[in-house]
Write a structure and sequence with these properties.
By secondary structure, the chain is mainly beta. Helices cover about 5% and strands about 40% of the residues. The chain has four helices and 28 strands.
Amino acid sequence: MADWSQLHPELLDFIAKKFKIYTDYVRFRAVCHNWRASVPKTPHHLPTQLPWLMLPQSQPHHTHRPFFSLSLNKFHFLHLPEASHRRRRRGSSHGWLLILDEAPEIFLLNPLTRSKVHLPPLSTFPNVVRFNFADVGREYALRTSSGNVYTRSLKKMRDSFIKKTILSSSPANGSDFIAVVILNQTGDLALCRKSDDSWTFLEDAQSYSEDVIFHRGLFYAVNKYGSIAVCDVSGSSPRVSIIEMPQQFGGDLQYLVESGEELLLVTRYLDLTYDVEPDQTSLIYRTTRFQVCRLDSKAPRWEVVSSLGDRALFLGENLSLSLSSVDFPGCKGNCIYYTDDYSEDNYDGIGGEQDLGIFNLEDGSIEPLPCSHFRIRWPPPLWVTPNPC
């Protein structure tokens, strides 16, 4: 009988490079010592993985975070004291989280490897004119576009200054990545490069803050009417050009998604409903439908897409993703997987239903995510792509 543990290292390496799913690769290495020693610990060849849903801690003092895997229909619990309840995540991109504390510190965290990369602190944004720890409750002084100065506490800056973060690439192994953030209250876009000591505003793209994506070597930002700002940040000074589009009306939120070679615009429609509890009645926004369009750059215009084929989209506070459902079990094609990325303040410190689910583009139906039985507390869940690199 053949001894499978003694397969030639070159053959084992050839087989390992055929895997597309990270968990399959991990299981392959776990077979025996020879198999584990014959292939690298870090599989750099893997394509973008099906995202896990990062859920909040079950208790504030817990240091483990549950992540739900659609492919395996199970939870992974990762030890992440760096993402405690006293810190806030502001987006996920290429498998990394942006983490803020009640201090100027900003860092990127890979929840799979626990690697950290520090970014310039909050006190280095162009609109922050003063920072002083001793000025309790008013530690930050900020300047508005009209020149007025106002103050913000450490907690307010942690909770509401940054809305979302997008990276040009994974910051692993010292790569020259660029980070772009959307500021929550002003709608400004700011960027920093790997070696920068401070943040820089994209001056000509202030109102294009609905969503941002890195596409074909450029950052694309969209406003609420569907027009886009194309940001070339390859030189020492960012250059911004505007592509005016026929205006989109009626939608509530816009998302940009790179799907193959195409750039998609996904519009989210919300409806106001009443949530009746025994002790109170609350007004809550719920997603009712999505519309998907593709960019026709020659016109230019957005063309409505009636079907995504085998593609599935993942939207929320994460870098918007388009993946083939054929490559990942547990993933449905022609569907949009979405999380609640617009009403976090409504859930500060309390439990309750949140606006997340699976929208079927073919018939317009909405179904709950498979982990809906898990009691979701604040903050809302977040899609995170497992990235071992």
